[in-house]
């Protein structure tokens, strides 16, 4: 056994066994030499503990050959079993779950054309750990609904039925398209029994802690009418409306069901309180509601945390908590405090427990530590190091992200994260890196794009511009009809702040983004042609009119139209594609061939329009690529192209 270090804090003893880790430690002291260190897929992802705690399942990404393997590591024997292999091109492992000690339920994701539209599909597999064989759980012959269309998503598990490990509850729209019925499905035989027929425009279902079907979330996509239907008791047969609001007319009244109490008499839910999402609970017998937890500065929009043993609610996930969870005290809170004291330089998350809650997995990361998995035992107080997510990247090669605020032109304070190269503070070549979404958010913590840019000597600023989630209703809703307007101005103001502070060299600033961030990068070349010396768009939207037209083929067309806008002249004014004549900035366009999120047409038409007017542009199509850079060679090619482009236009 290798060298061990013992740390005793809060009754926990931490063991670090250098030869226990499955990660290759031979590269840990080597400095990154090229973009490929940052562009590789994380070596280990989706790490989950078995019910007994004797095994760990995970996906491991390999470079030679470039494959992803679903594997199970037996902690007692030290042996690893290979279960499923994919190259992430035709089929991807979407998620998996321990059904029991011998079987994993696996969601397989792939792209497929439906009615001329490239979309995602899912199928559900049961994988036997002993035989290493997998089988489709859902019988395809039973899935054609009355319209003759087969269910698109076949992995919508409602409840894994922990007390009945041979069955699951699953939602399938095999009766009425887009109104899923609920089936009890045998994972060994595929035999299914319908327990609730699709009705009332219910799109999603929820069970209580005893696996009784108790809640349906209904949405009329045409009118926005939304209802939360419940059965008030575990044995009730009657569905009643508990809450209703209109998601198109007034989203400030939104209700988000979070889960049931152990008794089943109480439903937890989230709604806005003083502009921020907060956690409430309602007594289903009396209809009395009360506040459970709120944060005056940020939305509380995470899920509930339950004890596996007691099935009691013990906390809520909250992205602005250092551990990602706010606990209501108790032993779990003590465990979290022990981890935080032992590892004060990282954010530490308990990610998985075995059935008796003695064995657990934790994950630690920070700005300068990409990610480490540990296996803990509460009885012995031990914590063993398991995996490094990026074994080639070490702490001494990464930089801390500094949270800053800057004022937008209207005086609004905008949060952003600033990362500077080693020993450099002023007059730096700079990357402005807006996030995608746009209804997502930039956090502190390891980011492989940022780490790559900083390794090249660039300062990086990542603003949480208007429309970012987590800062309250008004801030999030400010994206409605504002693509290319105030949201874009927030990015311009961020760049001017960097220049005014002396951090950025005004002659060496580039804007880089993916998805919505790609749109923002392109729009920056239209609105502020002299501010940025180059722009990079991966999978970016270029034509808002096209985006709205494309949405007509989907259920949420009215929601897209409301968010983006509908006036044709206005959409054109806010679309890079229709304003190519204003562009003088060199542009790099990249897009995955099989992107089912943002159609590749957006990059194709942008490239043709730029070339037609003899603009400086390069276009790269990533073979079989998706929206998420799931294929290793695509990720590598994108980073190599960005590396060369940035060196040419703002390189040191």
What Rg is obtained from the alpha carbons, in whole angstroms? 25 Å
List the uncertain runs.
1-33
CATH topological fold name of the domain at 399-650 = Rossmann fold
Tell me the distance between the termini. 46 Å
Question: What assembly state would you assign to the polypeptide chains in this entry?
Answer: single chain
- In total, the number of strands is 37
Name of the level-1 CATH class of the domain at 399-650: Alpha Beta
The CATH homologous superfamily of the domain at 399-650 is termed Alpha/Beta hydrolase fold, catalytic domain
Give a quick account of the main beta sheet: strands, pairing sense, barrel closure. Answer: 8 strands, mixed
Q: Could you say what the CATH architecture of the domain at 399-650 is?
A: 3-Layer(aba) Sandwich
Q: Structural class from helices and strands?
A: alpha+beta
On the 0-100 scale, what is the average pLDDT?
Answer: 91
Shape: globular
Strand content: 35-45%
Q: Strand order within the widest sheet? A: 30-31-33-32-34-35-36-37
Number of helices: 11
The helix content is 10-25%
Main features:
disordered N terminus, 37 strands, alpha+beta, Rossmann fold, globular, four-stranded antiparallel β-sheet, eight-stranded mixed β-sheet, 652 residues
Could you explain the architecture of this structure?
It is a single chain. The protein has 11 helices and 37 strands. It is of the alpha+beta class. Among the domains are: 200-324, no CATH class; 399-650, Alpha/Beta hydrolase fold, catalytic domain (Rossmann fold, 3-Layer(aba) Sandwich). The strands form 9 sheets. Strands 30-31-33-32-34-35-36-37 form an 8-stranded mixed β-sheet, with helices on both faces. The longest helix is centred in the last third of the chain and has 19 residues, at 632-650.
């Amino acid at each position: 056994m290798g060298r061990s270090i013992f740390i005793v804090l809060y009754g926990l003893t931490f063991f670090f066994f250098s030869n226990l880790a499955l990660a290759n430690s031979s590269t840990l002291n080597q400095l990154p030499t090229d973009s490929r260190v940052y562009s590789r897929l994380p070596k280990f992802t989706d790490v989950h503990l078995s019910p007994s705690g004797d095994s760990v399942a995970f996906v491991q990404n390999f470079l030679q050959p470039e494959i992803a393997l679903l594997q199970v590591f037996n902690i007692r024997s030290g042996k690893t079993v290979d279960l499923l292999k994919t190259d992430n091109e035709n089929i991807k492992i979407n998620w998996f779950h321990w059904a029991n000690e011998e079987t994993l339920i696996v969601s397989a994701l792939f792209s497929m054309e439906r009615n001329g539209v490239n979309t995602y599909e899912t199928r559900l597999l049961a994988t036997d750990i002993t035989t290493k064989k997998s089988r489709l759980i859902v019988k395809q012959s039973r899935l054609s609904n009355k319209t003759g269309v087969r269910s698109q998503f076949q992995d919508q598990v409602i409840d894994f039925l922990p007390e009945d490990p041979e069955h699951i509850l699953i939602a399938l729209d095999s009766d009425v398209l887009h109104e899923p019925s609920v089936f009890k499905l045998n994972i060994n035989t595929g035999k299914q029994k319908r327990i609730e027929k699709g009705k009332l425009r219910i799109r999603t279902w929820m069970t209580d802690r005893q696996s009784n079907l108790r809640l349906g979330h209904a949405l009329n996509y045409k009118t926005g009418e939304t209802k939360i239907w419940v059965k008030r008791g575990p044995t009730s047969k009657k569905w009643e409306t508990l809450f209703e609001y209109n998601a198109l007319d007034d989203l400030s009244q939104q209700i988000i069901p979070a889960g049931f109490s152990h008794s089943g008499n109480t439903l937890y839910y989230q709604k806005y309180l003083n502009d921020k999402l907060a956690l409430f609970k309602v007594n289903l017998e009396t209809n009395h509601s009360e506040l459970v937890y709120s944060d005056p500065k940020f939305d509380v929009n995470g899920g509930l945390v339950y004890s596996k043993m007691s099935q009691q609610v013990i906390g809520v996930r909250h992205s602005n908590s250092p551990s990602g969870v706010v606990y209501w005290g108790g032993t779990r809170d003590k465990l979290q405090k022990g981890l935080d004291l032992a590892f004060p330089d990282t954010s530490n998350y308990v990610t998985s427990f075995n059935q008796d809650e003695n064995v657990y997995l934790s994950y630690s990361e920070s700005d300068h530590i990409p990610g480490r998995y540990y296996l803990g035992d509460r009885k012995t107080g031990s914590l063993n190091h398991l995996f490094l997510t990026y074994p080639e990247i070490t702490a001494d090669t990464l930089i801390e992200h500094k949270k800053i605020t800057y004022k937008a032109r209207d005086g609004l304070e905008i949060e952003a994260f600033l990362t500077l190269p080693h020993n450099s503070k002023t007059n730096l070549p700079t990357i402005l890196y807006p996030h995608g979404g746009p209804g997502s958010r930039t956090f502190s913590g390891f980011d492989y794009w940022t780490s790559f840019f900083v390794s090249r000597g660039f300062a990086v600023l990542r603003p949480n511009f208007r429309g970012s989630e987590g800062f309250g209703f008004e801030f999030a809703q400010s994206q409605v009809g504002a693509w290319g307007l105030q949201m874009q101005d927030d990015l311009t103001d961020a760049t001017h702040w960097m220049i005014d502070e002396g951090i950025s060299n005004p002659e060496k600033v580039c804007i880089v983004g993916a998805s919505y961030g790609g749109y923002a990068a392109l729009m920056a070349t239209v609105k502020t042609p002299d501010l940025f010396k180059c722009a990079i768009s991966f999978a970016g939207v270029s034509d808002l009119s096209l985006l709205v037209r494309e949405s007509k083929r989907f259920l949420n067309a009215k929601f897209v139209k409301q968010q983006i806008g509908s006036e044709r002249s206005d959409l054109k004014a806010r679309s890079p594609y229709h304003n190519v004549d204003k562009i003088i900035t060199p542009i790099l366009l990249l897009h995955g061939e099989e992107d089912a999120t943002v159609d590749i047409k957006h990059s194709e038409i942008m490239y043709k329009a730029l070339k037609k007017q003899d603009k400086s542009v390069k276009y790269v199509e990533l073979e079989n690529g998706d929206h998420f850079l799931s294929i290793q060679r695509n990720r590598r090619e994108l980073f190599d192209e960005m590396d060369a482009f940035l060196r040419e236009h703002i390189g040191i």
